[in-house]
Known about the structure:
The chain is mainly alpha-helical. The chain has a three-stranded antiparallel β-sheet with strand order 4-6-7.
Amino acid sequence: MEKSYEIKEVVIGDHDLTLEEFIAVARYHAETKIAAQAVDRMRQSRQLVEQIAERNDVAYGITTGFGELSKVSVDKQMSDKLSTNLVLSHSVATGESYSEEQVRGMMLLLCNSLSKGYSGCRVKLVEILIDMLNRDVIPVVPQKGSLGASGDLAPLSHIALLLLGKGKASYHGEILEGKEAMQAAGIETVDTLVNKEGLALTNGTHAMTSLAALNVYDAEELISLADLIASISFTALTGQKAAFDQRIHQLRGQKGQIHTAENFLRLTKDSEICDASQGLRVQDAYTLRCIPQVHGACRDAIDYVREKVDIELNAVTDNPLLFTEDGSVISGGNFHGEPMALAMDFLGIALSEIASISERRLERMVNASLSNGLNPFLCTDPGINSGFMIVQYSAASMASENKVLAHPACVDNIPSSASQEDFVSMGTTAARKCSTIIQNVFSVLGFELFTACQAVDLRKKDEKNNGLSPAQNAVYERVREEIGFIEEDREMRIEIEKMERLIRNREVLQIVRRFVSDYR
């Protein structure tokens, strides 16, 4: 499968969008285009909206108000103003802005949904959004304000503002007024939206799904990193490999567990420290012995979430939906974010477990009563030096913060729109929390790898051979290019900043894959 960073062009509307294509556009700025057949579908859908408006048929959001105001009829002359007012009045999100890659993802998913031809908006709007993506005009979208039903109304309204030449946007990294940014990029705006377009642009799950897609993509890398880093800690702690015997894991049958145990055996193959350590103990503590069971269960959780995200990337989550084959206009609830809410809460819980067990392995390395012979806090001169004492504190802080963030958002509910919308998903909150958890997990794993390399240096027998396997050694050597052995206390902040960059730049996994084929 082509890697996301290798994809240079993504065409929407002629096939199901893949996660790799989504990441290619959102994170790596691949060019976006729309297929000709999608343009035809959208035109047919738009024609149906105009026919409904001309006949003055009762249709939610076309000839009526929104939410509880669906009981109020709106005549044809005012329906365009209704759509424009929807965007203006709903642009009430607040707080820090979403990252550019998160907003790019929202824009792509909005275009992909509209291109299906069930929403009744003009082709022109999708073309404007695609021009914005390709010319790097990215709306400023505050993070707080979505209940996750009726879709991501507030954040998507901030995107829609740009189509009207309003709001704010980043243009090549500079924050400008919306009209100024669009003019600088040479993109025409519209004076007004027309009937149904306000709903089509705002009544979907595109904000939470964009975050969910980025989250699950990063989670897949995190779990692979976790296996790798845990294997180095395991080696430094002279772990017993019997617990990874495939016969044990086959008897249980859990796929993720089997996969993790297999990863460990491949990663530790030809490690002199491991080979020399076998038989030292009957069994290890859970943080070493039960890595397949814990990491494996989290891997299975990620696979489940990936399946739900793959579906939602191509979902039509507008309301009402138009079916051109028979002229039906059907009001439903596809905008409800429950599928993403549950998935993001589940993913946040699973990834919190990865940080928690990582921190416990780190603690075993710095605790002389648990480390099987390593120096206290991995110091060469304990007492004068504190060594890695506070590295463990920081990791513990982030692991504990994750436990707070892992509380499910989806179990909460506050009715809205005069209780017409009386059960909401909080899916966007769940996705936002999960994003924060992911960043904490990257940091905790980075701290563990930093600590494990120090522990390996203290464990090794001589200067020429650190006792690691070829794959582990390649990663160790890359760390040592950035960070040397800590002989005595120094400004650890500098080392942590280097480690943070290294753990996030995807290079570590690429190194491993040179030694362990198809590693994931």
